[in-house]
Protein 1
Amino acid sequence: MSPVPVETITTDIASVDISDQLPEGQRTSCPVSNPTTQEISPELLRTSLPDRINYIKDFIMFGTPDQEILHKVAPLVNDMIPQVVDDLYAKLFEFDVTKQIFLKRNEGFDGPIPSKLEDLTLDSAQLVYRKIFMKSWARRVLTSDYSSGKTWAYMDKVGIMHTGVKSFRHRNHVAPLVVPYRDCALSLGWVQTVLQTAILKLDSDELSNEEKIAAIGAVSKVIWIQNDLFARHYIDE
Ligand code: HEM
């Protein structure tokens, strides 16, 4: 059979609207022609942090109720943060690919550093020092003012600094830190599970079931935003 010339193929069918022939509830509308569709500039998503954050917040519906429930949960889980951080480091020390990154010298730390992987322990001086930053990040996640651009700028800098690019002024004088995105994402997933499990285990007189559901959602959202603020510096969009 000889092929049909392209110009004879009719596309009329594409413009037929059959939605009024469908039962109610199954009627569809094309999102492209929907007047409520927001116009998002991919260029601004890349170049403007506030634009990116607005888009993400809208998409995952992150708002004041999320912030309120995070602030309510913060004092209830605050005492377990040091243990969460200890356990995260124990996890990172389970694998050579993640452990070896800690052989490098931290900004501001001038104490002794072992040169061999097997000599590096979880209680070595540099690790104790490093955990302070991680605890501070975890506390910020639960207590930050998410209406402030400074919060997002901090979370974005946390992402940037793991890619080998300098973002914090206090880290200007040290060798760049390079951590694969894979391990940052895995760590975020790990922290998310631990935090959510802790929330679910709270007594119901501390946090009602409804509040627990809200808190689980808020933690997922904020971890996912932090994840985006890592990923965007590794992935070419
Ligand atoms: C949950 C994911 C992670 C978060 C939220 C996170 C957060 C942070 C923060 C807040 C700092 C200090 C920033 C500052 O100087 O103010 C930091 C530094 C650092 N992170 Fe991460 N990190 C994550 C994953 C990882 C992973 C997977 C590794 C390695 C396997 C890693 C290795 C380091 C190292 C070596 C430093 C350098 C500290 C210094 O030189 O001062 N991080 N991270």
Protein 2
Amino acid sequence: MIRICLFIFWSLVAIAFAIDEPALKPVFGTQRYVEYIPGELPLVMSAPHGGLLKPRSVADRSYGVVDSDANTQDLARRIAAELKKQTGKSMDLVISHLHRSKLDPNRELKEAAQGDQTAEKIWMEYHGYIEDALKASVARHGRALFIDLHGQNHKDIRVELGYMHRVTDLTEPTQVINGVDFSKSGSIQLISELNPSVPYANLLFGSESLGALIEQHGFLATPSPRMTVPTEPYFRGGYTIDRHSKSAANVAGLQVEANRIRLRDTSENRQKFAEALVQTLRIYIPKWLKVEL
Ligand SMILES: [Zn+2]
């Protein structure tokens, strides 16, 4: 009898500890150069250019952009923490810890790693984690929103939303933008398919577009109703968004480029932007991807 009681007691202790234990622990790749924090929401974020590590064992990249996007790793973590605070749930987060002078995960392999074998391995792990995260999210929710988080320092202080469309494409007449082929060249084709009665231009810069919602939460953004065609320079989205945002895989995605001034420079500003973006996504994802957060 005592044995049975002890067994029940220790079983209850084990269950209590299991509940207490955070279910979603970070996973690290080779030498902890990539970190993957699994989540449970239909939202996956990657931070490719906020890495700080410059190990001698990885060769310096000799061409392409080598400057980091300052504070974007911290910004991504703040967005994840704020989302957890507001919803009680975590999003998937993939972080490159290598400085961009060692690896640029947002380029195809050749330019990204420039022949360094360790960098090549980290690049594969990085994109592998994004693929795993998106597949898991789609398995749970039927679809996923993917955000590749960056920082820019353009003179016009705004959030740049990159759907893979060039500025010259966005200057096309509305009827061309709303035509059947236009959305196929963009990264939110899935959202267009989920909302067949909504003209594509409305998704890019209408009154309920992501740009409009971000502006309603206190930060200027483009494309948006205020600025349907971004002034240049403008980042339209890169390798990572192009690779992972496929409607056939039930993934919509975009590149979010946060200006340094007002959005990334101080911890207070990063927190304000993180809160605004989370509030925005809590409207955007249920409305356009038709899945609750
Ligand atoms: Zn970047």
Protein 3
Amino acid sequence: MDTPVAIRSPGISAERRAVLLREIERKLLWLSAWTIHNANHIRPNRDGLKVGGHQASCASVISIMAALYFSVLRPEDRVAVKPHASPVFHAVNYLFGRQTREKMAALRQFGGAQSYPSRAKDGPEVDFSTGSVGLGVAITTFSALMADYVRLHALAAEALPPGRHIAIAGDAELDEGNIYEALLEGWKHDVRNVWWIIDYNRQSLDSVVPDRLFGRIEGLFRDMGWNVVTMKYGRRLEAAFAREGGEALRRWIDDCPNSLYSALTFQGGAAWRQAVLADLGRSQGVRAILDPLGDDEVAALMTNLGGHDVGMLIDSLNAAAAEGDQPTCFIAYTIKGMGLPFAGHKDNHAGLMTREQMELFRGAMQIRPGHEWEPFEGLQASTAELQEFIDSVPFARPLTPRGRSMTAPVVAVPATLPMPKAAGRKMSTQAGFGDILAEIGRGQGEMRELARHIVTTSPDVTVSTNLGPWVNRRGVFDRHTRNDVFRDAKLASAQRWGMTPQGQHIELGIAEQNLFLLLGAAGLAHALHGARVLPVGTVYDPFVNRGLDALIYACYQDARFLLVSTPSGLTLAPEGGQHQSVNTPLLGIAADRLAAYEPAHVDELAILLRHAFAHMQVPDGSAVWLRLSTRQIEQPARSLDSGAVIGGAHWAVPPAPGARIALAYQGPVAPEADAAFALLREEEPGAGLLAITSPDRLHAGWLAALRARRAGDRRARAHVETILAPLAPDAALVTVLDGHPAAHAWLGAVRGQRVVPLGPDHFGQSGDIPDLYREYGLDADAILDACAQALI
Ligand SMILES: Cc1ncc(C[n+]2csc(CCOP(=O)(O)OP(=O)(O)O)c2C)c(N)n1
Ligand SMILES: [Mg+2]
């Protein structure tokens, strides 16, 4: 698969490259430690807060990153870097000329290099943001799946050679459950070209990892069809093991508990010698190995682990690449803090070198004061040779003229989407969603291109969220063609689920984090693969909470997708409290880069669905979330102001100028609001009825207008301000939604109005809608009572 390194740059011999790589390792160790030191000890500190950074976590992964970036990686590979190795990542880019000294010097400062690699803030060199441990590792599985998807659907404008999807993982990341969810899902989809390289320093934040753990984990990977390559000992130790007495020494290290190994590493050569000889001193061979060595050399030998042997790492990685595209887990034994004074100490995770330690380190690295940032300061090789070497490594080739981030043309979205004939009938927003998508799925006329670029996915709730008809039309995606056994046997079923490489639905198991990781990866396909896909994921609304960290993670990376969460709220009446979501409208307000909507009627839904497909493609757009329901309600015949629907609210019945009260509703409580409104109008003929489609958009627009006015733009006006303007300044507002009432309570702050907000603020329970609406205060009587209270 890979061209041997020597052929790429005939100017530098293989032996010389090995020497230069060790120079690069030294430099990465220095730069990462210095960048953190500078942030903590050199830069002025205005607030007295510890700045932090992880010198020990960086040190442990230096050789792994040197081997990858300066030998093994190709430009088309995509990498998720262990979050607390961020300074090493910045240093790598600095050496490639892709990171500035100013940003390095401003690590963890406003506008500086980020503490954890960030796509949105560090720019296109970052393939995947990392930070919440486990998620960066797992997303590589889904980006590999999407790479196959876009290739098999011929969606990429310019096809790149298939790259690998690589996670450089901390060993404690494997404690996160989402890792195993992703492993299982990856196995089901026969995902290829994924590498997870585990920095196995046997330390997490607080502690040393139990010894027995890795045997288990290795077995797990193998069970999931992964190749496992363990890099335990470096070549110097292997050479020692080959000598007389070497086997005893190997056994001694193999049996050495992780915590003792760590402690001896911290204590150094004399302690190592004493401990080994206390057990093996009677072995002539072992003495012959250790006696000629000074204490420092004994320490270097005993800590010569595979993850610190750059030559061995390169050979192992290349050997796995040559074997093919099987997912591979590399367990690289390392020492946390390797090469730094706190190497191996169990408390070193957040440890920082003192000024004195840094001065000693500077001396050892031969860095002159004032020359700390110079890329090749203190190295033996000449600047010209080092630069030639860096320029010659495969990863130095630009992936695109603009760097690692690709683009894809926008898919035209027709001016209107096919509307089901709903007016005058009863229909739910969920059914409307299924119908509209199924119509698009016919792929006819102007819907053809739109349909071609949509990919749907769902964690085992495809049918119950009404994606079924779309799937019947567009098929299920699988890298291999698999027949629909029920269909072949002529057994009746509403679902036709033959699987092919052309299918456009990715069926997931029930783990919701995987849904959001896939939406994250698919929502970055334009940037990662140069292919536009319009991902649509469906999930039950309450279980958004189950995948919330991964959802936020996807948004943090600015992934673009449509989330449809349905059913929602108390309208799942018989299902009971665990299925009735209360907090999700608040999540919609609080989640950045996610425009959250809850339409009540199918005409609003059609406008919002169209908006979603367009909004997720424009540079200043975002992901979109539609909260839907299975409650069937009467569909009005009317024409809507789509701008107002997208802006977050429109008047179902406009108020008379100066009206004393308005009733606002959101989602499927519309019939109760209608009924209460009819009675309210008998008392208050000028009252208005407001349909809120998005408290999130209203709130965001309001904050933006306030900010703009503070900045001097006196004409800035929010949609919510325009909407509420006809009401009397002291008019009352009664609001109602099937979700937490705080989603609306803030509306009173816009113009200083009184608000009586209605909505469940306790866990739900089973019942039918009349009982539950009465119990939670959403029925027409409760709404009228609230109106009376608001008018006092
Ligand atoms: C989800 C999550 N929980 C907790 C943390 C805090 N945290 C950051 S690093 C870390 C330990 C990581 O250990 P490991 O993965 O072994 O990395 P090492 O520093 O040893 O390389 C923890 C608990 C986090 N970033 N994300
Ligand atoms: Mg660790």
Protein 4
Amino acid sequence: MVLNVLGISAFYHDSAAALIRDGEIIAAAQEERFSRQKGDPRFPSTAIDYCLREGGLASGDLDYVVFYEKPLVKFERLLETYLAYVPKGFQAFRKALPVWASSKLHLAREIKAGLGSEFRGQLLFSDHHESHAASAFFPSPFEEAAILTVDAVGEWATSSIGHGKGNRLQLLQELRFPHSLGMLYSAFTYYTGFQVNSGEYKLMGLAPYGNPRFVDEIFNRIVKIMEDGSLWLDMSYFNYCQGLTMTSEKFHDLFGGPPRLPESFITQKEMDLAASVQKVCEEVVLRAARYTSRLTGATNLVMAGGVALNCVANGRLLREGPFDQIWIQPAAGDAGGALGSALLVWHHVLNKPRKVNPQDSQKGSFLGPAFSNDDIGLFLDAVGAEYAYYSDESELLSRVARLLSQDKVIGWFQGRMEFGPRALGSRSILGDARSARMQQTMNLKIKFRESFRPFAPCVLKEFVHEYFDMRPDENSPYMLFVAPLREQHRRQLTSAEVTQMQDPDLRVRVSIPRSALPAVTHVDFSARIQTIDPDRHGRLYRLMRQFYEITGCPVIVNTSLTYVVNRSCARSKTLFTALWPPR
Ligand SMILES: [Fe+2]
């Protein structure tokens, strides 16, 4: 008998749904991709509808629905935290209580209402960090692995260490709230004027501009880290237990003033703070990984939780050991909990065996909806776009590769949407990484923003070791590892450029070419790499091979296709060419 399990994450941030059938991942998507509300926390009705549609199911066909965490345990944490800080925490508690009273404490009722009366299956709840751990281990290419999950907080746990073998995983140790690496990083995200829960990657991208001069201050005053990677935070520097902000006055006094106002000018102080907390984060992750290795004896590591999206720390872990191989869940944040909880039901509750795929079972993370040529044609007609249809893929790829080599920017929309925060080649904007103007052109004319961060490179897998400090057998198909560009591709700055590198405007600094691949090289020569291979990436791989034939360059720019295609941009000769039927 075929069994269908639906996993759900919701009501905090990154709501998502994931469907597995007989242990195979059928579909997974975040609600934000349908609602266009970034980090949408609402019940993921549209994502669930999509998963059911993809599986050819109605909610009455679901055998199990599982929620990614245990709301009552989470409420206990909220209550105990409030009591520990009483009367200071009253404001925060008063804000949170109505939401809990009206919906979060009655999640079973809410979920059943969302699924409709046809749903007759079982409703289960898994543990937050166990869901993260399952999302990392079960789809991984390893029969056995150490597990490390690190985020802001689940029910009580803020990070956990575990071990997975075959179809079982076990969490062995955990660090508990309020001591949390994710919270520490988010506190600095808040203080430097970025959005908590979504701006952390901007802080990571800001770090290479800074001097980590606050590291000692952070270690001496705010955080103590132990040899095993666990940490203790001095809570007098924070306000997230009792207040509505992340940091306290004492934190502000320590770093010389109030938090930077969002969108205001970024000063050297913010850059130095970013560099400092990034160093601290890397140190904690490296220590935790070494301890995990000693504790489990495993030679491979899997990771999940929001901190596992810190690809600079991941890159160091890959280069500095102690693990032979590392696999990270691409939807490492709470969206991935939907997938993990569904896999937990399959392997733990139902005790079904696990078939290990040597590549991995995540299917390139292309788990979202695809559109037919007819759908796309209708849309393009409706917005009055100029377009051409290619029935021959080689003709299409040859045209696109040539356009890329001529410094044109391509909107690359094909196949199934990615699950996870990164554009991996299905909903991407592509460009020539060799172009010195590409970073600015893409930001200002296409993404309608200005940014101090370079774009990420896609590199043909067979060339990754020639361009970046990675081994030929290492890959990064989910853009989760940062690696330095090799020396031979770097460029010596002129004395005028060295002076320009002191410019307070970061856009000036990022526009100075650092290498033969200026659009994708950060000021410290690092790059957030996506390796492209023929099995996972099919058409994108074939496109890049064509581009390589023309240019001799196996690297292109890949950034997310996030802007809304509307009538005006369709008329501005933006080119839509990705009209080949799905693989
Ligand atoms: Fe989490």
